[in-house]
Predict the structure.
Amino acid sequence: MEETSGLKRLDEDLKAVSDERDAQKGKYMTFKSGNEYYGLKIQYVNEIIGFQAITPVPETEEYIKGLINLRGKIIPVIDVRLRFGQEPFEYNDRTCIIVISVKTTVVGLIVEKIAEVVEIKEENILPPPTLGRTDKTQNKYIYGIGKAGGAVKLLLDPDKLLNDTDMSMIEQGNDVLNEEE
């Protein structure tokens, strides 16, 4: 009898996890960078924190701003505008860090300001344009263009936001810093 109730509880837990995934499906955290609004699938977003002190890491790419200490965990942060090859901006009280999980790494994305969470249905997502743009740096991080209401959001692929060299360098730095604790 106990085994049956245990299985029933497990089944209910699995259904709750499935329902949570369904609830997240099609939801995007949107933020502003430059003149554009971008979206990240909500499933990648761990949390949003206010801007805080960043410890610079020497000899890294310009867009890798450094490391932050988030409740005892060392997290690398990158400036999204610089990653896209845009002009730097002055950090202010609207500047936020979106903490995301990319593969096995947790990374903070510095953004100008958070917009909102929107739902974008699959049928409202188009592939990015391939018109003769010579500056394709931004497009290589975008997997689609989402229509939400009357607005358009550029949908980011977080796996492509960091290249493999950046990821291995950041992971090595994390390993060393987290071993020291």
